[in-house]
């Protein structure tokens, strides 16, 4: 005769598909609901924001879009938040993509952000109201998109000598010397900092071949999975700031007073984490109660 | 083929077609039916991949194989057009540059650019059953240069810099107990918090190294330090796992956004 299962035994043998279903239902319901949550900013994101916010107009920042569509959900909001902030301040941007599918990501972000900057907006951060007059973002004047080249380590080293070495033309086929903003821009010496938004080990190359060799300020925007691995570089001063996953992007949006996809996604994160914690607690209760029952039963 | 498999396939195909037509009819733009097809295809592939959570099935396998195939082909085309056509040909020949419609770089002619061409061809010899051994030469070059480059750079960035950042003072700005207690605060950059942080780094690194030291039995004070090392490792793995969970949920949020906003247009 089969022994009747109690609730704790059922907890231990719960089909994982019920967990997935419950999680998806909670995520969809939370996403559909209209509410907001406060975002507390951290020092590692603040240091990136403060550095970029302190740059005068016409300074140049190199942004490396080193991620593919599989990391789009986490890293695209960072790109939107950082680039929009820079263009609001009339800081020029050089884009590169050392990830194979990165050019499409960069191209989409450039088009979307250019569109959103055509309208007048008011931002309120650092206790000051900033009025932004909508303007056209022009290729070759406000930004240069270098595109993709394989073997990222060699490209990072090559750009330290001359951007034209690996990128004689930009992504759209225009020679770099024909672009107004690239006049007099030779290598990293003319760049205020590098922001690497990465979903893979290209970040290692930016740290060792880029920052290690050419000593420019390096800031990272990383996927959640990678973030903990790169904290030692923050402690050693090799990296000036880290935005970790969707939370990092949401913090930047909060700092720049530019709520977007990341802040929206953090609402879902909150409730998804509650569900995961609930199942961890239930699973542990089930495990300990079943073990106690077995011990009492002499098994 | 089972009857249920055929019915499932027919239902999914019908839903796909309905979605495509509906998206095409209600999408604005220059090519609404193409946009509608692409959004519907993306939704189908998303759901096909997610169906693996229920169990392995042919739709998941199709989406997976399509992804691998398209990625490989895309990488090869991108490598050809961006490196060979974009970088190499403009430095070699004005005639071929004209053929590929890229601007020839005057005065940059250098015989050394023929070396990567030769090595590239040798690398492709791997496909030949008789000349496969020739691919070892470029492979040896790649392995050798990569190892050489990485050795120097990683030694500096991942070893020396990391070791030096671990050797931190335990007493920061120490001017006696009077000064310490009169300026006591819990700010992140304050003396107390900084000293405590450095103490955690010192104990964490020391105990972590002790845990991986196997030439002495882990008993007595050595064993206790080793146990602290395990705790430090567990906390590190826990933090890493926490970030991983956040990352995975972010991906789910991304897909939900696509399915319910871009495809179904239920959530604005």
Give the secondary structure arrangement, pairings included.
The complex is a heterodimer of chains A (299) and B (268).
Chain A: H1 7-12, H2 16-32, H3 43-53, E1 60-66, H4 72-88, E2 92-97, H5 102-116, E3 121-125, E4 128-132, E5 143-148, H6 152-161, H7 163-166, E6 193-198, H8 202-214, E7 218-222, H9 224-235, E8 241-244, H10 245-255, H11 261-296
Parallel strand pairs in A: 1-2, 1-6, 2-5, 6-7, 7-8
Antiparallel strand pairs in A: 3-4
Chain B: H1 3-26, H2 32-50, H3 58-88, H4 94-99, H5 114-124, H6 136-166, H7 177-182, H8 191-211, H9 220-263
Number of helices of chain B: 9
CATH topology of the largest domain in chain A, by name, is Rossmann fold
- Report how far the terminal alpha carbons of chain A are from each other: 18 Å
Largest sheet of chain A: 6 strands, parallel
Top-tier CATH class of the largest domain in chain A:
Alpha Beta
User: How would you sum up the global shape of chain B?
Assistant: extended
Tell me how many strands of chain A there are: 8
The CATH architecture of the largest domain in chain A can be named as 3-Layer(aba) Sandwich
Distance between the termini of chain B: 41 Å
The SSE order of chain B reads HHHHHHHHH
How confident overall, as mean pLDDT of chain B?
89
């Amino acid at each position: 005769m089969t022994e009747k299962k109690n609730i704790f035994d059922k907890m231990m043998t719960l089909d994982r598909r019920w967990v997935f279903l419950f999680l998806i239902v909670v995520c969809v319901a939370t996403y559909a609901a209209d509410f907001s949550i406060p975002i507390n900013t951290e020092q590692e994101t603040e240091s990136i924001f403060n550095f970029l916010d302190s740059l005068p107009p016409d300074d140049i920042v190199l942004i490396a879009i080193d991620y593919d569509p599989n990391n789009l959900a986490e890293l695209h909001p960072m790109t939107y938040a950082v680039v929009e902030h820079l263009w609001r301040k009339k800081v020029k941007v050089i884009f590169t993509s050392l990830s194979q599918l990165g050019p499409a990501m960069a191209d989409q972000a450039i088009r979307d952000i250019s569109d959103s900057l055509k309208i007048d907006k008011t931002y309120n951060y650092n206790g000051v109201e900033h009025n932004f007059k909508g303007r056209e973002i022009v290729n070759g004047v406000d930004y240069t998109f270098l595109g993709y080249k394989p073997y990222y380590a060699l490209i990072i080293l090559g750009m330290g000598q001359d951007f034209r070495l690996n990128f004689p033309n930009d992504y759209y086929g225009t020679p770099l010397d024909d672009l107004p903003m690239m006049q007099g821009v030779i290598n990293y010496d003319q760049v205020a900092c590098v922001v690497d938004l990465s979903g893979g080990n290209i970040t290692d190359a930016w740290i060792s071949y880029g920052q290690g060799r050419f000593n420019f300020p390096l800031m990272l925007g990383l996927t959640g999975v990678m973030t903990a691995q790169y904290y030692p570089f923050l402690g050693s001063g090799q990296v000036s700031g880290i935005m970790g996953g969707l939370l990092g992007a949401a913090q930047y949006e909060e700092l720049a007073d530019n709520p977007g996809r990341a802040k929206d996604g953090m609402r879902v994160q909150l409730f998804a984490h509650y569900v995961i914690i609930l199942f961890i607690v239930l699973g542990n209760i089930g495990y300990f109660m079943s073990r106690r029952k077995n011990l009492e039963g002499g098994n | 083929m089972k009857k249920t498999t055929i019915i499932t396939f027919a239902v999914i195909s019908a839903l796909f077609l309905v979605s495509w037509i509906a998206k095409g009819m209600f999408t604005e733009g220059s090519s609404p039916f193409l946009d509608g097809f692409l959004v519907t295809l993306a939704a189908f592939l998303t759901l096909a991949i997610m169906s693996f959570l229920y169990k392995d099935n042919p739709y998941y396998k199709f989406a997976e194989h399509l992804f691998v195939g398209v990625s490989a082909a895309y990488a090869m085309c991108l490598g050809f057009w961006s490196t060979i056509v974009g970088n190499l040909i403009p430095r070699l020949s004005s005639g071929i540059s004209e053929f590929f419609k890229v601007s020839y770089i005057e005065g940059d002619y250098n015989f050394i650019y023929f070396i990567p061409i030769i090595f590239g061809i040798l690398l492709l010899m791997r496909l030949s059953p008789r000349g496969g051994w020739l691919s070892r030469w470029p492979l040896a070059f790649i392995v050798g240069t990569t190892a050489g480059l990485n050795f120097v750079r990683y030694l500096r960035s991942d070893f020396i810099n990391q070791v030096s950042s671990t050797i931190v003072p335990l007493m920061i700005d120490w001017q006696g107990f009077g000064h310490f207690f009169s300026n006591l605060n819990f700010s992140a950059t304050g003396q107390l918090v900084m000293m405590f942080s450095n103490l955690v780094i010192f104990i964490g690194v020391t105990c972590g190294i002790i845990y991986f030291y196997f030439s002495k039995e882990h008993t007595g004070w050595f064993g206790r330090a080793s146990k602290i090392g395990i705790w430090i490792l567990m906390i590190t793995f826990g933090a890493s796992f926490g970030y991983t969970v956040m990352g995975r949920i972010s991906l789910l949020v991304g897909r939900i956004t696509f399915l319910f906003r871009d495809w179904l247009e239920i959530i604005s």
